[in-house]
Structures are given as structure tokens and as C-alpha cells.
Amino acid sequence: MATTATSVTSRVAGVHRWQRALAGVAALGTLPVLGWMLDSHVYPLHVGTAIAIAAHLFLVRRPVAFTRAATTVGLLLLPWGLLGMYMGMCLFWPSAALLLLSAYADPRARPAAARLMAVTGGAVTATALACAAVATWTFHLAPALAEPHTFRAVITEEAYLDSLDARYTPLQELGATGVSGTWTEELPHLEVSFPEDLPEERRAALRAEIAALPGVSGVELCPVSECG
After folding, report:
1. From the CA atom positions of the chain, what is the Rg in Å?
2. How much of the chain is helix, strand and coil, in % rounded to 5?
3. What is the pLDDT of residue 187?
4. Taking the CA of residue 178 as centre, how many other CA atoms within 13 Å lie in the half-sphere pointing to its CB?
5. pLDDT for position 2
């Protein structure tokens, strides 16, 4: 009788606040992923996945539907992240874990299990936040704040197809540590890296030498986020 009464009370009151909190954090956890994947060619898939995770917040008045949906979506996100690992879908795994935990974090129905789910959810959240902070610093903030140490210039197709090593070896005498070619936005580019501690006068001389090369134009410093 007690179990039945608790079940009825849960249905009337809706999803417990612990469950709502876990589901809410799961939804918020998709925002950094969407920010990181803005340039992805499959970005609509990321948005669709985030919507599927956030949709549970509209079921807080329907505990049974909430539990079923959270369990189903949480389980589906595990193989989905594996299949789309190279597209960044695995970054939704923390949200998947939180959804699964939220489905069974109702202390009115199972007090001991719910407390375990809540504590585990807190640990998952803390770990995800730490990993997100490290990733944001490593791949976004640090490169943006770092001083560029690569010159990039537009180069004609004919010059690009010539041997880079043979044509640009003299640049090493001015401090260049590497010379490579890239092809972006239908334009070939020449990239010349140099040490971060290279004096300004030698940087200027290196830049002038690059600009004097046949077929080269528009020599500019390349951000670390683009050229490393």
C-alpha cells in the first residue's frame, strides 16, 4: 500500500526536483558542445541531438513519460556517440549519463537509489565541467591568446607546385624552422614557421624575404588557432 501511495503521489506531483536538476544539467551540458562544433559540416546533427536531450524538460509534469524518454534517449546516445565519434557526438556522453541518472533519481519511489543517482550525477557534472574547462583553454583560449609564430602568404598555383624545400631553403638562414604549403578557400598558401623568441628585426627580415619570393603576396601573421 505504501509503495502504491508513493507512486500515485509521484504521478500527481510530477518529476522530482532531483530529476529536474539532473535533466537540466544534461541540457546545459550540450551548450559547450554546440559552441565547439559551430564549424562542423554536420552541425544540424549536433543541434538535433541537443534538442533530443533538452526535450525532457517539457515532460516534468509526466513522470512516467519522463522516465521512459530519459532512459531511451540516454541509452541511444551511447551507440550514437560511438558511431559519430569522429564528428564529436561522443561529447554528448556526459549528458547521456545524466539523463539515465535522472530517470531513477526520485527519492519518493526509491530513496537509497535516488541518493546514489544524485551523488553520481554530481560527480559526472564536476568531471564534465573540469574536462570542458581544460578543453576550452587548450583548444580555444590558449591559441587565441598565444603570440603567432607563423607567417602565411598567398602563393600562385605554379609556385605552389614547385618544390618547397628547394625554393625556400634560404629562409632557414633567417630563422625559419619549417616551410609548408596548404590549400584553403581555393587559394594555395605558403606557411613559414619561426621560433617564438625570434628577435623582431629578424622577423621583419624573414617577412621581407618571404614577400620577395616569386609568386608570393599578402604575407601576414597567422593565428595559432589556424596555423599552430
Report:
1. 27
2. 70, 10, 20
3. 78
4. 11
5. 41
User: At 33, which amino acid appears?
Assistant: V
pLDDT tens-digit map of 65-89: 999 999 999 999 999 999 999 999 9
Please give the Cα distance from 193 to 153 (Å, whole number): 12
Taking the alpha carbons of 70, 75, 79, 82 in that order, is the dihedral positive or negative? Answer: positive
- DSSP lists the bridge partners of residue 102 as none
Q: Would you say 40 and 87 are in contact if contact means Cβ atoms under 8 Å apart?
A: yes
Burial 138-169 (b: 16+ CB within 10 A, else e): eeeeebeeeebbbbbbebeeebbeeebeeebe
Where do you find CATH 3.30.70.260 in the chain? Answer: 150-227
- Which residues of the chain, if any, have pLDDT below 50? 1-10, 12
Q: How far apart are CA 118 and CA 129, in angstroms?
A: 16
Q: What is the torsion angle, in degrees rounded to the nearest 10, for the CA atoms of residue 17, residue 19, residue 22 and residue 23? A: -110
Residue 5's Cβ-count burial label (10 Å; 0-12, 13-18, 19+) is: exposed
Instruction: Return the CATH number of the domain spanning residue range 150-227.
Output: 3.30.70.260
Determine the Cα–Cα distance for residues 40 and 46; give it in Å rounded to an integer: 9
